[in-house]
TrEMBL record:
Domain 3-hydroxyacyl-CoA dehydrogenase C-terminal: 487-581, 624-709
Record keywords: Fatty acid metabolism, Isomerase, Lipid metabolism, Lyase, Multifunctional enzyme, NAD, Oxidoreductase, Peroxisome
Subunit description: Monomer.
UniProt-recorded name of the protein: Enoyl-CoA hydratase/3-2-trans-enoyl-CoA isomerase/3-hydroxybutyryl-CoA epimerase
Main location: other
GO terms classed as biological process: fatty acid beta-oxidation
SUPFAM superfamilies documented for this protein: 6-phosphogluconate dehydrogenase C-terminal domain-like, ClpP/crotonase, NAD(P)-binding Rossmann-fold domains
Positions of the 3-hydroxyacyl-CoA dehydrogenase NAD binding domain: 306-484
Subcellular location: Peroxisome
Catalytic activity annotation: a (3S)-3-hydroxyacyl-CoA = a (2E)-enoyl-CoA + H2O; a 4-saturated-(3S)-3-hydroxyacyl-CoA = a (3E)-enoyl-CoA + H2O; (3S)-3-hydroxybutanoyl-CoA = (3R)-3-hydroxybutanoyl-CoA; a (3E)-enoyl-CoA = a 4-saturated (2E)-enoyl-CoA
Pfam family, one: 3HCDH
Amino acid sequence: MNQKASLQVQHDGVAIVTLQNPPVNALHPAVLNALFNCLREAHARKDVKAIVVTGSNGRFSAGFDIAEFAKSSGGGGIDSRINDNFCALLESGPKPTVAAVESMALGGGLETALACNARICTPGTKLGLPELQLGILPGFGGTQRLPRLVGLQTAAQMMLTSAPINDKKAAKLGLVDAVVPKEKLLEAARAWAAEIAAGTKPRNFSLYRTDRLEPLGEALPILEFARAETQKRAPHLTHPLLCLDAIRVGVEQGGHAGLQQESAAFAQAASLDTHKALVHIFFAQRATKKVKGITDAGLKPRKMKKVAVLGGGLMGSGIATASALAGMDVLIKEVNDKFLQSGLGRVKSNLASGVKKGKMTQEAADAVMQRVKGTLDYSDFKSVDMVVEAVLEDVGLKQRIFADLEKACRPDCILSSNTSTIDISLIGQKTKCADRIIGNHFFSPAHIMPLLEIVRTDKTSPQVVLDTLEYGSAIKKTPVVVGNCTGFAVNRVFFPYTQAACLLVDLGLDPYKIDKVILGGFGMPMGPFRLSDLVGADVGLHVGKNFVEAFPERTYNASLIVKLNEAKRLGEKTGAGFYKYDAKRKTKPDPELAPIVEASRKEAGLLKGGKPPPMSPQEIIEFIFFPVVNEGCRVIAEGIVDKPADLDVATVLAMGFPPYRGGLIKWADLIGVKHVAQRLNQWAKQYESAGLAGFFKPCQYLQHAADTGSQLSAGVRPDSKL
Ligand code: 3HC
C-alpha cells in the first residue's frame, strides 16, 4: 500500500490497483511511479492472476498532472520511458489488465485505459484525448492505440477537436467493452479480468490490433485531408500537425515506430510557446473563481434560486435563458405586454436553437421554459434572490429602477446591473443599499458567451461578491471579478484596440489589409473594422465617448467612426459600414468607403507626403496590440483585476484573443516586455508632435517591468514591497 496508488488482492485472484490523487486522480509523476510499482508487484505475485486498474473518489483519471507542465520548462518530464515502462507493462505484462472507468478517462487517463486489455465504464463517463487544447499531443501512446480501437477517422477527429465522447458512443465505437452501473463496476471488471485470465474471453492488445484501422489506401487520404483542414482552420498552430505526423508514422510503419514518433513529437510540441500559453490559460481560467478577500474569507455562498431580469431585450432574454437553463426560476419584467411577449419569445427561440443544435431535447427545453414567467410589475419581487437589470444605457432610468427595486425586493436580495459602461456606484446612488449593488456584465449573446464580468464597487459586500461568483458558476460562465471604472476590464482594453486601428488608417493604411492581418496573421476571430460593423458604429461612438471623457490624455480621438455615423453606415445592421453586406450577412469591401477614409485622413493630417509608413504584418500587430497591453497594465496596476491572469482569461473569452497566445498579458510576457516598452516609447516619440505621446507612452507598471526584467504576469507594482 502506498499513498498515490493502492494494491488490493481479492479472493478471486484479481488485484485491484486504485489511483489515488483527488480530486481527479491526475497522473502526477509520483502517481505514475506508484502505479508502476503496484503493477510490478501484482505481476510478480503468485496469488494474482489478473489486474483491474481503477480510480478513487468516483473518477478514473483526468490525465497527466497539468501542474507539472507549468513547473517544468516543457513536457513535465514525460519521455519515451513512460511508454516503454508502464503502458507496456499494462498491455503486455504477464497478467491481463482491465480498466474500470468511472466518470472520466481523459488524456493520459484514457491512454492508461487504452493500454489495458479491456475497458469497462459507467453511464455518463466522458472519454477523450484533449491534449491538443494544452498545446501538446497524447504522450502515453494515445496517437497509436486510439486509432487501432476506433478507426483513424474517428480517432483523428477526437484528438483534433479535443472533445470527449460519452459512454454510449464509446461502446458503439468499441472503445469500451461494456457499460455497467456504477455499483457493479468493480465486480464486472473483476469478472472480465478473471475470464481473460481463464482464456474464456480474448486478451486484446490495442497496439497490435489492425482490424479497426482503415487500409493504407484509405488511411493516408484521411490524414491528408485532416492535415489540410487543420492548416486552414489553425494556420498558427504546429502541434496538431505533429500529432497527425505521429499517427501517420504509426499507420505506415507500425505501432512501435508510431510510439517513437509520438515521443519525439510530444517533446517538440512541449517546447513551444503555444503549450506554455495554453497551460497558463487552463489554470488561469480556474483561478478566476478564487478572489482574495472573498473566497478566502470563510463565507458560505448562497445559491440563487430565483432571479428577476429587468428588460426582455436581446441581453435580458439571453440572461434569462442562461439562468433558467441552470435550473433557476426566472421572472422577466417589461414595461408593457408587447415587449414582455417578445422577451419571452426570445427565450423560447434561444431554447429552440439549443434543441436544433442537439444540445437538449424538446421536452427539456419545455421544462426550462416552464421556469420562466413574465410580469409587468414588482408584485412578485419579494421572492427573488437576485435582480439583473438589463434596460437601456440611461443613468437616470437605471437610478430610478434601483430605487424602486430597493423597495420592492427583500433586504438580502442582490441588485445587479448588466451595464457595460455606466459607473455602478452611480446607478445605486439613489438607494441606501450600496453593499448589495453589483455589476453583472454579460457579453452578447448572453446565454452563449462564456465570460461574466462581475463588477464590485468599494461598497459591495464580500458576501454579495461571493454569491454573484456562485451565480456565475451556476450559469456555466467563467466569472471574473473586476473593479468599478470606465469600461471595467474588458471594454477598457478594447478602447485602444479600436483607436490604434483607426490611427493606422489615418496614417494611410488600408482598413481591409489591417483586418486581414489581425484575423489571419494574428488569429483574432475578426479584424477591428469587421468587429466595429458587428457592434455598430453608433454603439462604438457612444461607448468611445466615455473613454475619451475618462482618459483624454491617452486617447486618439479618431474621426473615422464619427464620419461613418454621419454617413449612416452603422455596420451590419444597415447593410454597410466598413464593409458592404448582402442579405446573408456576407461581407465584401466597399469602394464607397474610400471618400470617408479620405475625409478622416485629411482631418487627421498625419499622412505625410501622401504615403503610408511601410509596415510589416508584425508591425501592424504590435502597433494595434501594444497600446492594448499598456492599458491592460494600467488595469492591473489600479487593481481593477484581482490578478493579471484574470485579464488573460477576460481577453480570451470576451475579445477572442487567441488562447494559444496565452491572453493579452501572457502574450506580452512571451514576446518580451522590454520589446513592448521599447516600441511604445519609440512611437510616443515619433508621434509626439501629433499630440499622440500619451496614447503610446508606457505606463509606470509596464516601464517598471521592462526596467527590472520582471514579467507583467507577476503583478509586481512599482510601489510594491515585494
Ligand atoms: N492535472 C492537474 N489538475 C487537474 C487536471 C489535470 N489533468 N484536471 C483537472 N485538474 C484540477 C483543476 O485544476 C481543478 O483544480 P482546483 O480545484 O485546484 O482549481 C480541479 O482539478 C477540478 O477541475 P475543474 O475545476 O476543471 O472541475 P470540472 O469538474 O469542471 O472539470 C475536468 C473536470 C473535465 C477533468 C477538467 O478539469 C479538465 O478538462 N481537465 C483537464 C483534462 C486534460 O486536459 N487532460 C489531459 C492532461 S495532459 C495529458 O494527459 C498528457 C498525456 O497524454 C501524457
